[in-house]
């Protein structure tokens, strides 16, 4: 009888350990693979391009009328939104105002991962200017006319948002 109690206690202990191990494994140690956002790379590319087009349109509208909607920041994740807000505050403190229009071209898909899309773009800045406090044009005469950027888009409840916008390494140029 005593050996059956010991066997029952050992079995209960093993079941408890097994149950605990099962809970530990499902509590975040092994994360499930996230489902892809898009059915194909082409669909991901189209969504990223549409998001960036809407962002540039909002940026141009904002340069013409700061009260315009949607705001350019509506297309940015929080860290990029904060950087944009800090930059805007810095310009405002210096009495500078961006004006004019940006255009983009050569939008190319670099890669699609389950929860992000990476693309390159050439941003044409020839139609934009930086206006100083007295209305004078402060735009650098020797700036590049077209700026190569690498963009990262991530999934959100609103659709894709831009989470990173990085200049290409030195030496990479966009064709005019």
What do you see in this structure?
By secondary structure, the protein is of the alpha+beta class. 39% of the residues lie in helices and 27% in strands. The chain contains 3 helices and 6 strands, in the order αααββββββ. The strands form 2 sheets. It has a 4-stranded antiparallel sheet. Strands 1-4 form a two-stranded antiparallel sheet. Strand 2 and strand 3 form a beta hairpin. The longest helix is centred in the N-terminal third of the chain and has 28 residues. The protein is globular.
Low-confidence stretches: 1-26
Total of helices = 3
Largest sheet: 4 strands, antiparallel
> Termini separation (Å)?
90 Å
Total count of strands = 6
The largest sheet has its strands arranged as 2-3-5-6
Radius of gyration: 26 Å
Short key terms for the protein model shown above:
176 residues; alpha+beta; four-stranded antiparallel β-sheet; two-stranded antiparallel ribbon; 3 helices; 6 strands; disordered N terminus
Helices, strands, pairings?
Elements: H1 2-29, H2 41-64, H3 78-93, E1 97-100, E2 103-113, E3 116-124, E4 128-131, E5 146-156, E6 159-167
Question: What does this entry show, briefly?
Answer:
This protein is an alpha+beta fold. It is 39% helix and 27% strand.
């Amino acid at each position: 009888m005593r050996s059956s109690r010991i066997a029952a206690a050992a079995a209960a202990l093993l079941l408890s350990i097994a149950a605990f191990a099962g809970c530990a494994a499902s509590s975040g140690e092994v994360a499930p693979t996230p489902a892809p956002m898009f059915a194909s790379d082409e669909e991901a590319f189209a969504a990223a391009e549409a998001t960036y087009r809407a962002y540039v349109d909002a940026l141009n509208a904002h340069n013409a009328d700061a009260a315009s909607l949607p705001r350019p920041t509506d297309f940015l994740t929080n860290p990029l939104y904060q950087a944009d807000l800090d930059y805007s505050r810095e310009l405002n403190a210096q009495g500078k105002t961006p004006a004019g229009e940006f255009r983009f071209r050569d939008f190319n898909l670099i890669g699609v991962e389950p929860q992000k899309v990476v693309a390159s773009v050439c941003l044409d800045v020839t139609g934009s200017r930086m206006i100083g406090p007295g209305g004078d044009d402060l735009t650098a005469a020797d700036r590049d006319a077209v700026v190569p950027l690498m963009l990262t888009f991530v999934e959100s409840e609103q659709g894709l948002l831009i989470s990173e916008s990085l200049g290409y390494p030195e030496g990479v140029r966009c064709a005019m």
